Amino acid sequence: MSGTIQDTSVEAIRTWLVGRIAFYLQRSAEEIDADAPLVEIGLDSVYAMTLSGDVEERFDLEVEPTMAWDHPTVNALAGYLHGLLGSRG
Amino acid sequence: MRYPAFALAEHLDHGLGDPRDPARPASFARCVALDSREEFPAEICAELDRLGLPRFYVPAEYGGELRSYEELLHAVRILARRDLTVAIGHGKTYLGAVSAWVGATPEQARRVGAEVLAGSVISLALTEREHGSDLLAGEVSAVPTGDGYRVDGEKWLINNASRGDLVCVLARTEPAGGTRGFSLLLVDKRRLAPGTFRCLPKERTHGVRGADISGIAFTGAEVPAEALLGATGAGPEIVLKSVQLTRTMCAAMSLGLADQALRLVLDFATGHRLYDRPLVDLPHANRTLTEAYVDLLIGEATSVLTARGIHATPGELSVTSAVAKYLVPTMMDRTIPRLGQVLGARALLTEDHADGLFQKIERDHRIVGIFDGNTLVNLNTLVNQFPGLVRGYRRGVVDPGLVDTVELARPLPDFDRSRLALLSRTGCSVVQHLPAAVAEVLELVDAGIAPPALAVQAETLAGLVDGLHERMAAYRPQPRQVPAEAFGMAGEYALAFAAAACLHLWLRNRHWLSDGPTAPLWADARWLRACLHRLIGQLRPATATGSGSDDGEDYDRLLPDLRAQHHEGRLFSLLPARLAEAGAQHSESPSRLAEPAPQASESPARSAGTAAQLSEVAR
């Protein structure tokens, strides 16, 4: 709610993303391959859009719903979000 | 009291003439005859070209006169009440061009606009035989050739694929596909090399039998690079944004068809006697009629707010357009057959009552729920946004544009495509502002301005909508199969939207609508009470509604309004609109609708007469 997450390292973002996706897919975090295309992990294009709402909640950061279409793996997304959060200062 | 957004609809309806006059080309009798022969209503569509309708498919910034989607909504509604085949056969060009309005460069969009103004028919080709509405499974491919693309594959169940001069095709531009693997190409059939495409035969359909529902198959069709609309890979995104506009217009088709069904049944019920009384005076029959009337008013409130939202709160359309496309057709799918029961056996006779028109309306309406995203697609869109909707409700988020959305007398801001969003960031302001509207109603009741029964309804509604959001908050998204209860909650959300829309409409418009032909409906909030009665009943079907004993008085009070609108040839509506049946139109339409186009600044190519000639040539 508060949007006062301090740790915006790539690693922290990646861990958080993996947790969200694992929760949604009802699998363990270890099963989520951070380099596999999200579609292959089992995330459909629509849920990939709703991830943007989670990101806005967590980091108080406005992102496009199509963010996961343009950065279609966990690692790509983590790098992208880290870049945005880092530039926010 | 004028409601300017009806001007275009009145212009078209009066231009086509009284549909009950069989001598008119666009009469009900002609439309029924064309339908039974499965013949495209070409003459009526040419008449619409002459009346200047294509100009209203093109946004003003691209050379046309589309300034208000509220106005377009009522135009589609008025055409659908005459003949759905006409509405989709002609309106399809809007659907074919909308991707350009949403996603093309301004220069491209102006070129597409010029085509529409010249009378070209444009079709939209998304679906394929093997893949239904799963757009990301499409196999039609577009491979870069250096100076353009080579298109291969087949699009099927495409409205106007054969008649169309241009076809907007969603094609796979990355072999692997995916959300960025498809692009839109505006293919000019007139410029394709012979033998590189063929139109598939018209499919026979149960409704809209005259419509050109066919397909097109490409075999090595070479199209130029400038056929690409928007960026490479932007196809799905443009389509998902475009349907937010077109789904709203689908609701208008349901409104038009239900209006005509109710009108037909009223014709019969006022003329037919049973037990020595006109049928309309029998309590059971008139309850069916007033319930249908209430459904129409609910559908109108929902559609009008959604259409105004295209201008004022476009960021929320992913929610509101799904609500309108789900709710209005689903509601009318129940309402229209119930009306048929009043006709009794006559509804089934093709040769008897009104040439079998009622049966045609029923058949035609079934298709509205299916195309442009079916019921489940729209409910699913809502389910996917539950988290954002719950957040928005709990925080009471209200987009500043809500004021313009709900206050009909306010001018609408220009539509800004850059504000369209695949997901709403602000949830849904119409619903999120409900608690404030309820508080305002309670104040009006305390002040003796609103009837006390309204307070009970408003509080009941507030409780139901709170409870719904608690259940939505507890829903955990499912990766594969969306459970039935989630669809159920999405359906309730649509009802909550409709109820909130009615409350806002009444609160913000009751002053300026307190005179004019629809004044009695507004004066004692009688339309609002009947609509809330019906919606609360559907949100809480097991028990009585919020207005105490459920004796249906809220509905009965509307019977005089319903009969007056029928008798005077007005649209069944909260707002004053005169149909062609009412006789000669007053000279009230704005000059831009007058014929011939009066402004000297209008170029010859844009005048309606020239457009009609060009379209004749094109055919």
UniProtKB/TrEMBL annotation, chain A:
Keyword field contains Kinase: no
Q: Return the InterPro entries for the record.
A: ACP-like_sf, PKS_PP-bd, PP-bd_ACP
One protein family per Pfam: PP-binding
Sequence ranges assigned to domain Carrier in this UniProt record:
8-85
Q: Look up keyword Phosphoprotein and say if it applies.
A: yes
Protein's name in the database: Phosphopantetheine attachment site domain protein
Keywords of the record = Phosphopantetheine, Phosphoprotein
UniProtKB/TrEMBL annotation, chain B:
Residue numbers spanned by region Disordered: 581-619
Say yes or no: keyword Flavoprotein present: yes
Acyl-CoA dehydrogenase/oxidase C-terminal domain segment(s): 234-382
User: Which cofactor names does the annotation list?
Assistant: FAD
Coiled-coil stretches: none
What InterPro entries has UniProt attached to this entry?
A: Acyl-CoA_Oxase/DH_mid-dom (IPR006091), Acyl-CoA_Oxase/DH_mid-dom_sf (IPR046373), AcylCo_DH-like_C (IPR036250), AcylCo_DH/oxidase_C (IPR009075), AcylCoA_DH/ox_N (IPR013786), AcylCoA_DH/ox_N_sf (IPR037069), AcylCoA_DH/oxidase_NM_dom_sf (IPR009100)
Kindly state which keywords UniProt assigns to this record, in alphabetical order.
FAD, Flavoprotein, Oxidoreductase
Segments forming domain Acyl-CoA dehydrogenase/oxidase N-terminal: 34-119
Taxonomy, superkingdom: Bacteria
Q: Where is the composition biased (Low complexity)?
A: 594-608
Domain Acyl-CoA oxidase/dehydrogenase middle, by residue range, is 124-219
- Pfam families named among the record's database cross-references: Acyl-CoA_dh_1, Acyl-CoA_dh_M, Acyl-CoA_dh_N
Q: Does the keyword Flavoprotein apply?
A: yes
Which residues belong to the signal peptide in this entry? none
So what family is this one in? Answer: Belongs to the acyl-CoA dehydrogenase family.
This chain's protein is named: Acyl-CoA dehydrogenase
Q: In which organism is this protein found?
A: Plantactinospora mayteni
